[in-house]
Amino acid sequence: MSGIGRASVLIGAGTIVSRLTGFLRTVVLVWAVGATTDAGNAFAIANQLPNNIYTIISTGLLSAVVVPQIVKAAAHDDGGRAFVSKLFTLGTVVLLAATAIATVAAPWLVQLYAPAYSAEQQALATAFAYWCLPQIVFYGLFALVGESLNARRVYGPYTWAPIVNNVVSIVGFLAFIWIFGAGGAATEWTPEMIALLAGTATLAIVVQTGILFLFWRRTGLHVHADFRWRGVGLGQIGRLAGWTFLMVVAGQIAGIVQSQVLSEIPEGDPGFFVTQNAWLLFMLPYSIIVLSIGTPYFTQLSEHARAGRDDDVRADVGRSIRTLGLFVVAATAALGAAAMPASRIFTDTTEEAVAAGIVLLCFLVGLVPLAVLFVIQRTFYAYDNTRTPFFFTLLQCALVAVTAVAAWWAVRADWLGLSQLAAAVALGQSIASIVQVVVATWLLQRRLGGLSIGSWMLALARFALAAIPAAGAGWLMFQLLGGVGGWTVSDKLLGALGAAVIGTVSLVVYAAVLALLRAPELEAAISLTRRLLPGRR
């Protein structure tokens, strides 16, 4: 446990700094392009394309398969050197080919994701995309190196390198504002403006990847180009990744449906860019809490599964869900109470902050289920089972697509306004996540048995009970500070300050109620939190 605790703190601290600088990056980007403008939405679509394509070809494979397989390969006579060399060579070839194809197909990709955009907005998004799509190669290399480091229990660099990305982006976006001012209508963008804004985004990814390569020596592996892709188990990866690939494709299809629905939203209402920023806020506690605590657990869980120690795996599942749940429920209460001030950070007006805050609240409905799913899904992965996660993820993707289309039909039937469409899409995604985690947990119970679901569900219920007065206290503080008409939603900086005050009140009340309830998990949480303090180990 001490090893997991130290790794969690290292990952958590790096993630906090990364997310904070990422927030500043987004603030500067909103300043440059606007939160609800055609140009802002065009850039958001274009800069998301490399992430989506990379996800299809690589992310599912890496997160589901590479860590367990590298752990296994470490037992080879060469310590896994041949395996990793072949894996990196194959990965680089695939990434380069995908980048070339995607760049040629940029106009069609923009049309696919945003069919309702005007011709001028699609042309601008396509121009941005030509500069952004080379990110695919560097995202892939970054993930390959990072997951290899994680598999060797070198957690820090993968978490801290994105900070450099954010710093480069901030400098580049500020240079854009200094030279060109805030971007105007879609028809007013020049090639120089496009190159500086989108080129900065890509340069930041390049630098981030280069920084990570500096730490490769710590893996103890010497990698070289090797085009002989047979003989060290790559066939096993192919069989495992087949289901994962289909799962990722299903997720991307659902995302395309969401994007197409959001492209119907006109300038001035919360659309794709606002939804993307609400997701960024939503992912803050997920990244800090779930990834920092869950990633070391996944490495340990993979080792236990490989050794056939099912009892230890069951204990890992219950312990990690209870630990994650305590923190994630607290974050849900705090961020829910501070939703509108927090959203003001990434918007230009109070009205935009209120609309974006509602989108965030709809996403937050699914935060706790998503944290539980992290553990359940990766337990299947630890047993080299990617087939079962495909089916329960396919269900989730179908629900995401259906709820997004249903939201658009509700708008056309005048049951919802266009200003509410983004919130409805976000709520549909949360509902889909709840259904997914219920089905996934049931399937894991059938696979392993003895998950002691009742014990960790009781813990989650205890946390939820404490969250009710915590969220209420935070909301009361928001009202005492002026509510929607107050200073906490009047400015970006004041929004950040107001969110911090409101969130702190919620967290204090949450901890106090848990103490009154004598929650056994509280002591472990306090111990983990103390390790984040300067000078503590």
UniProtKB/TrEMBL annotation:
Q: In the UniProt record, does the keyword Transmembrane helix occur?
A: yes
Q: Which Pfam families match?
A: MurJ
Q: What protein name does the entry list?
A: Putative peptidoglycan lipid II flippase
Q: Which GO terms describe its molecular function?
A: lipid-linked peptidoglycan transporter activity
Q: Provide the species name.
A: Microbacterium pygmaeum
**Entries under InterPro entries matching the protein:** Lipid_II_flippase_MurJ/MviN, MurJ
Membrane-crossing segments per the record: 7-33, 53-75, 87-108, 128-146, 158-181, 193-216, 237-258, 278-299, 320-342, 354-376, 388-409, 421-444, 456-481, 493-517
How does the protein associate with the membrane? Multi-pass membrane protein
Keywords of this protein's UniProt record, alphabetized? Cell membrane, Cell shape, Membrane, Peptidoglycan synthesis, Transmembrane, Transmembrane helix
Q: Which GO terms describe its cellular component?
A: plasma membrane
Subcellular location per UniProt equals: Cell membrane
Which Gene Ontology BP terms does the record give?
lipid translocation; peptidoglycan biosynthetic process; regulation of cell shape
